[in-house]
Design goal:
With about 425 residues, the protein is an alpha/beta fold. It has 14 helices and 17 strands. The chain has a 7-stranded mixed β-sheet with strand order 5-4-13-14-15-12-16, sandwiched between helices.
Amino acid sequence: MTTQTKHIAIIGGGVGGLCLAQGLRKAGLDVTVYERDRTPSDRLQGYRVHIDPHGARALHDCLPAPLWQAFLDTTGRGGQDFGFLTERLRTLALLETPAAADPADDHHSVSRITLRQVLLSGLDDVVRFGKTYERYERLPDGRVRLFFADGTDATADIVVAADGGNSRVRRQYLPHAERVDTGITTVAGKFPLTAETRKLLTPRLVEGPNNVIPPQGMGFFTAPHDLGAATARDDGIGGTEQEGALMDNAGSYILWAFGATSGRFPSNLSGMTGEQLKATVAGMIASWHPDLRRLVDLSHPDTVTLLPIRTSIPIEPWPAGTITLLGDAIHSMTPMRGIGANTALRDARLLCAALTAGLTIGGDPVAAIARYEAEMREYGFAAVRDSLRSAEQFIGDNRAARAGFKTFLRVVQHVPALKAKVFS
């Protein structure tokens, strides 16, 4: 099919923006990504990300076949089954998830660095680095002019805000769309997985992700990223780009995250070094199982970071136009359900299909964007609400509610039919 010659500008080169760019490029559409980072390695993030079937399907559909294969070649084993454990590592419930026949419908564990390498591949003439977006203005002919901090500007027919939770596009386009602090703070780190360190841990911690549920007021999450004998590909995907334990892209590890309300931490938390953050968490879990303490104690301090938790506030529908948004730019959510990146990828797939159809001769791009936004708002803000509820359950300040949830999990574990119904 022939398409209208329209230029699409994507503000932000994160997971969602790059996936959309790959899909639009694959469909033969004219697209440019404007990214504030000066180089591809300026803003590397050293932790793994869980890709669920929504995210996997988006990557499969938007990426060229060789890059989809590169993604599959460089994923780690994260375990399919999800455990709910006490702080003494007693099993409350174990949710079994069989592997899917099609990798595009399955779960994957991937380094954020590797995923960025995959998504940037082949986009040298699409991504413009060093372009810090400042504002836009609408032109009389309906196009949009974009202004950047370096004094340059660009014009586009359609603008997609993919510039994250602090989106400057959203701030101008939907100024009432707020993002707020949840009052929850997390500290995360990486425990190195080697032949020797595996022997130090209860097998369940190595086999798959777990939500550790202490009596009240705190939460602890673990997830393995096990690369086995896998090595970087000849094209560099899967290789380490920067020195340091945090940015090591070739080693296996267990990601752990400890969370609590901000008031439970020392007041000087934001100024602490990795070693001090480790010591703080170690003190707060001193009575827990030794293996959980070991995860913290044996993590390299350079991998230990502070992560305040913020969330969007769902808003009412707005009139569709030639500016739209995806990912954290519109529905930023807590990480407690592990669906933020997947929701952004889902947005990218849906918006790619909408723009491809809307820019076909005879199509209406604004009507296509309206259909995208209607569907995106429904699942996106539902994910925001679910993630916030999970965050509140994660830290569980209500002792009775926490005890009741643990009792519920024990019942579910012993009644397979109930487990299938509740967690299907």
